[in-house]
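Continuing from yesterday's entry. The apo prediction looked reasonable, so today I'm repeating it with PBG included to see how the binding region is handled. Same sequence as before; SMILES copied from the compound registry.
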Amino acid sequence: MAFPETRLRRLRYNKVLRNMVTETHLRVEDLVYPLFVCPGKGVKNPISSMPGNYQMSVDMLVEECKLAVSKGVKSILLFGIPEHKDEHGHVACQADGIVQQAIRAIKAEIDDILIVADVCNCEYTTHGHCGTIIDGDVDNDSTLQTLADQSVSLAQAGADVIAPSDMMDGRIGRIRKALDDNGFEKTPIMSYAAKYASGFYGPFREAAESAPQFGDRSTYQMNPANSDEAMREVAEDINEGADIVMVKPALSYLDIIYRVKNEFEMPTAAYNVSGEFSMVKAAGSKDWIDENRVMMEVLLSIKRAGADIIITYHALDAADILNSY
Ligand SMILES: NCc1[nH]cc(CCC(=O)O)c1CC(=O)O
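Holo prediction written out below.
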């Protein structure tokens, strides 16, 4: 059938009907809210490049989590800014580490929350790289040990999901085994499976104080030009026991999200990263775009591409809008 029998606009005139034929639905339940925890009490330091986001001490973080849960955002992703850093990131593996403290405090006060703990060394190493440095580069195999130790420590503190973001080869298998050996066989792993070496992480590195002190991350994070390689990364992580696979960043990588969802049929997460967030905020603050409208369009596009889970700094603002429908 062609025009004039077919008129695609017929389904667009009536708002009720338009809603009925909506194909993609964004839900508050899809959103994960990333948060940064730092030492101290009563601390809420604004992150200048990420308006509305803060480095928070544990007490303030607990309040922020209560606010999130009250809006229906029941899942958070935690990053730590430790008091002291060290050469190998051992500080991230301690029972009284900053994220471990935060997890315990949140769990003591809030029942209905899912805590996803990011596992990586870059926030905890003096050099800002994601692992142990040997001969001027991140050494893959020795880094696996700290990642496994950090994962077990976070699980012991009460983390519900372990999310390794380091991009070392073999880390999912190693972490899975370490979790199982320590009685955490029920703890899922959300792997940052296809994580690209991206300029969009800029604001995060201010937030987490994790910028590399020399070089960049291109010997471990992926080349933005590659798509088949992302499939190999995802396949490797699934093979090693990943329960959820993530693509990161999201917006410039919608094709990757689409391919991952279609080729693997796995629960798929996408990380709407700091730079993507900050661009919307910056243009919105200048009234160059309608910030809320663009935010919802961005999130919807990530869902439409195939993401089941969206990690986003927009989570609370988006929840307010979704709750108002
Ligand atoms: N490896 C740690 C990590 N986990 C999440 C992000 C970035 C998140 C964001 O930009 O919002 C990074 C930074 C990086 O790889 O440099």
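Comparison notes:
- The pocket of PBG is lined by residues 118, 120, 122, 130, 165, 201, 204-205, 217, 273-274 (CB under 6 Å).
- The radius of gyration is 20 Å.
Will overlay with the apo model tomorrow.
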